């Protein structure tokens, strides 16, 4: 089975989600048509590494929003578990203050569709998908359960995608916004462009 989703339409879904402290029973990626989406999976609510990631995305949420991107989290928990976790203070292991949507994937179909379900453990690996304004997956990264992700790297990749779309140029290794990019020449080779 090919698990690579790059260049394919992001699998859509209809599920319950919690956002801004409320449950939305009819949540879908279609709600964000025309926007970039940073869609990430985490194993479970009320765990150890997961709250650090969710708080890290919240801390950078305004930076994602300034780039026209919607951050969305997803786990195999119920919407009621998400709601309870959002209402639990940070000093008690909760994620109070997280406002972006958390999708409930209790039947695990969304995690299966994105090829991140750890069938043995019954939870999702730490998958992250950058979806463009047309709903196409442009980046995917999947970490094993003990390995937390870098929110700064997700922002860097979003910047690279936006830069490429606006300028038609490509971004070399470790590229940061404002640095030199590259432009393909007619022979298919690349030359630095600054």
From TrEMBL:
Pfam families, per the entry: 1-cysPrx_C (PF10417), AhpC-TSA (PF00578)
Keywords assigned: Oxidoreductase, Peroxidase
Family the entry assigns: Belongs to the peroxiredoxin family. AhpC/Prx1 subfamily.
Top-rank lineage group of the source organism: Bacteria
Role description: Thiol-specific peroxidase that catalyzes the reduction of hydrogen peroxide and organic hydroperoxides to water and alcohols, respectively. Plays a role in cell protection against oxidative stress by detoxifying peroxides.
Residues in Thioredoxin domain copies: 4-163
PROSITE patterns: THIOREDOXIN_2 (PS51352)
GO molecular function: thioredoxin-dependent peroxiredoxin activity
UniProt keyword Oxidoreductase, yes or no: yes
SUPFAM superfamilies in UniProt: Thioredoxin-like
Keyword Transcription: no
CDD domains per the UniProt record, alphabetical: PRX_Typ2cys
Lineage: Bacteria, Pseudomonadati, Chlamydiota, Chlamydiia, Parachlamydiales
Protein name according to UniProt: Thioredoxin peroxidase
